[in-house]
Structure formats: structure tokens, C-alpha cells
């Protein structure tokens, strides 16, 4: 038996479409499906903005590699906010975290935060599968110092993999109840989604939201 009812689970979902071949009609269909399912938001590429929907609109920044100059990430976030994005999911420079350069990491997150200030919600994608536990902690601490609202596991595009219960639990322990934790990447079943929530996630990035909510197996992000 599922421990979270479908409506409550849907309310945690960023219904996601980040395929590079996606069209505007694909994004519009995503928005219609999100409204039908009752998801918290949609998450689309910045080129899809502005987009009309009754749910929140999230977009990505520095996606998917994170190897963009901080001023470019900041400009992208500023433009997305101006085009109606309620939330921005930025990818960190993962190399900075792997090198232990957490002051530089904090600075780039802060640049994005200043470019897209509250009420825009800033989520920081740390690519947890590519990091050690110490690096995960350091990246989460840098995100909190820089004023982020959420830390997020993964882009879903890194060969190291996506979300894990271990990473989610570690991220939650690090940020306590001060920040949100978003699990994304490789979550393809209802059981996996609920396991991420049990580990500490309060937002989920899913592309197969309908299949997961109905207890099936999804594909993709």
C-alpha cells in the first residue's frame, strides 16, 4: 500500500521536460498534463518561457553541465525571472565542489541569487552522484550561505547517475529544515518517489509523473 496519497505526492512534483529536442507544443502539453495531475509546477528549458499555466513555472540555469561563467548563469536567471519563471534550478560548477573550492562555489550561487531575488525560488543542483559525502555537505553549506531556497540532487543528465536515498538523507541532515531538498534524476516508480520523500525530499523532479502517480513505471528524467 502506498503511504502517500496521489494528490499529496503530486503536490510535491516539478513535472519536468528538459529534452533538448522538445518543442513548444511539447511544453504546452506538459503544462496541460500538470494541471490535470495537480503537480506543484512544471520545469522547462528557459527557451520555452514565457509559458501559460495555472501551476508554478520552474526553469533551469547553467544546464546541464554547470560549466558556465557565473555572470552568464546570472544573466540567464535574470532573463528567466523577467519572463515569468517562479523558480530557477541552477547547476553548480561541479568541479569547484570536487576541488573543495566552496568560497568560489558560494560566490557563483550568490550571483544567481542576486540576479533572481525572492520571491523567485532558487534551487541549487549539486550533482550529488558525482560528489563524495564531504563534497555534498560542502556544496549544501555553500548554497545555504549564498541564500538558496533548495538544494537539489541531480540534473538527470550526468553519467554518474541521479538521486539516491543516501544523498537525499545527507542533504537533509546538512540543511535541516532551513532549506528544501529536491530529489531528481532516475526516479521512475511510485516506490522510488516515496522513498525519496521518506529520506527527506520535499520536492521531486519527475518527467513520468502520470505513470508514477498511477503506480506504474516511468521512463526518462
Query: What is the helix content?
Result: 40-55%
CATH-derived architecture? Alpha-Beta Barrel
CATH topology: TIM Barrel
What is the number of helical segments per DSSP (H or I, 4+ residues)? 9
How many domain regions? 1
Corresponding CATH superfamily: Aldolase class I
Mean pLDDT across residues: 96
Global geometry: globular
Which SSEs are present, and which pair or pack?
Blueprint: H1 6-10, E1 13-17, H2 24-37, E2 41-44, E3 56-61, H3 70-82, E4 87-91, H4 94-98, H5 102-115, E5 121-125, H6 133-145, E6 150-152, H7 165-175, E7 180-184, H8 190-199, E8 203-206, H9 209-213
Parallel strand pairs: 1-2, 1-8, 2-3, 3-4, 4-5, 5-6, 6-7, 7-8
Helix pairs in contact: 3-5, 5-6, 6-7, 7-8
Annotation keywords:
alpha/beta, TIM Barrel, eight-stranded parallel beta barrel, 41% helix, globular
In short:
The protein has 221 residues and is an alpha/beta fold.
Characterise this structure.
41% of the residues lie in helices and 17% in strands. It is of the alpha/beta class and 221 residues long. The protein has one domain: Aldolase class I (TIM Barrel), CATH 3.20.20. The protein has an eight-stranded parallel beta barrel with strand order 1-2-3-4-5-6-7-8, surrounded by six helices.
